[in-house]
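Box 4.2: Ligand-aware structure prediction
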Amino acid sequence: NSTQDTLIIGKKVIYLPTCHSTNDIAAEIVHAGLFEEGTVVITDNQVKGRGQRGTVWNANAGENLTFSVVLTPGFLPIPEQFLISQVTALAIRSYLGSYVADTKVKWPNDIYMNNRKAVGVLIENSLQGNRFATSIVGIGVNINQSVFESDHATSLARETDRRFSLAEEFRKLLKFLDAYYVRLRSGSQHDAIRAEYLNHLHGYRQEVRFLHKGNITNGSVTNVTTLGKLRVRLATEPEELEFGLKEIEWV
Ligand code: BTN
């Protein structure tokens, strides 16, 4: 199982009909030393998917894409690690944007189509000294799902009124991920990547709503720092504020 049309991501693909979490399998493969950069672990039936902030990710067997990519971004200084989130989000956004015009990145790296979440990303890094050893990029894309627990979730099928071949969409998405990662590796594109990320960011220079200190507040995103913090101007605060992952929520 491999693809010849990418440079790094997907040269080696490990397919498991069922597994607990592809991020966990990828971590086991890393520990066993059985990987090369760009190895992908994909499953049709992830029974114990993990989401951000310790949540559970349910992937509806056979309907969605659920996979993890092993990267070795040793070239990247640790304080610049948010670039991995940024290229991942941008690649997935471009891929979905080829089908649906209103496709946005919601900080840090969720992807929304027509204002509903279609993709979740969970990135887990391991360090060696002051460099990255590996970065496991876990991606769940709702492709053919038609029934949703939450009104805030959607799928590519729902937004386009079509059904898709998971295998074809997987190959297509890998090409986008590969192209953006190659761009990151080139080293000369960091500022361009950050600018592109802002361009596609939900709430950037636009009024949106946040949950801040228990209250729903209007505000807009003014920037995202190199460290990945969100800079926001809230209607209720005199100064622009900076938030880390657990410090603010979207409404
Ligand atoms: C989130 O939005 O909370 C992140 C969800 C990440 C889900 C993906 S599916 C593939 C990979 N394996 C996991 O256990 N989680 C990620």
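In the box above, the bound molecule is biotin. The helical segments are 22-31, 82-97, 156-160, 166-186, 190-199.
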